[in-house]
Amino acid sequence: MSVLAKETCVIFGAGEYYPGLLNTPVVPDGALVIAADGGLDHARALGVAPDLVIGDFDSLRGARPAAGERTIALPPQKDDPDMLSALKIGWLHGARTFHIYGGLGGRVDHTIANIQLMALLATHGGIGFLHGDGTVITAITDGELAFPANDVEPGRMVSVFSHSDASHDVNEPGLKYQLEHGELTNTVVQGVSNEFLPGVPSAISVRSGTLVITFPAEAPAPEVTRFHDFEGDLGPLSTEISSILAPQARE
């Protein structure tokens, strides 16, 4: 493929695109743009021309994209969902920061799957942001999100959940309810419904573990710090019918 390496990737998925200024997709200059299956319908409606289109096209309502090096057609019985395939393509092109629109709402199983994918990115040293309904969902592993001072209105919630079995040495300085050297687990809810304080910088960090974090879309973008280097990648594309299916299902 002729697409140059990009540090940031914007992915259009087939989920919900909520009305309102806070939910308007933003494509940074120079970002790689990928449409995942039915996300191509939304990209077209927004007047965005993707650099690449990928999927099995079972959720696409408009015209199927022309075959070529910028279109990757996948079988519907593959192991990976289309969103993971889009993330893998972005990663292969050098992206480590991902902004995903249309990854929330609609089918709840797709929403849960996409939150898991944010954790997958985090465990490999990347970061993804799911945008929708005035909220951003992200994940971080062994690192910190630092938010500059802001004027987000009270009542707009920041919540923190442990995706890993246990997340150790969790700190939340500068938030309304501050946590110091805490431990969160994925079976006890202790980090929900926090808030920014007006004019106060804040941070959310975990020394060991993976956190899923939600924050208001109007908050300033956080600065990401990782406490160590990460290795590995997201793996190859799943381009064949899954070998784990029963033989009759592969026919």
Automatic annotation (TrEMBL):
Its EC number is 2.7.6.2. It is an enzyme of class 2 (transferase). InterPro entries: Thi_PPkinase (IPR006282), Thiamin_PyroPKinase_B1-bd (IPR007373), TPK (IPR053149), TPK_catalytic (IPR007371), TPK_catalytic_sf (IPR036759). The keyword Repeat does not apply. Keywords: ATP-binding, Kinase, Nucleotide-binding, Transferase. GO terms for biological process: thiamine diphosphate biosynthetic process; thiamine metabolic process. Residues 143-212 form the Thiamin pyrophosphokinase thiamin-binding domain. The keyword Nucleotide-binding applies. One of its GO terms (molecular function) is ATP binding. Pfam families: TPK_B1_binding (PF04265), TPK_catalytic (PF04263). NCBIfam families: thi_PPkinase. This is Thiamine diphosphokinase. The lineage of its organism: Bacteria, Bacillati, Actinomycetota, Actinomycetes, Bifidobacteriales.
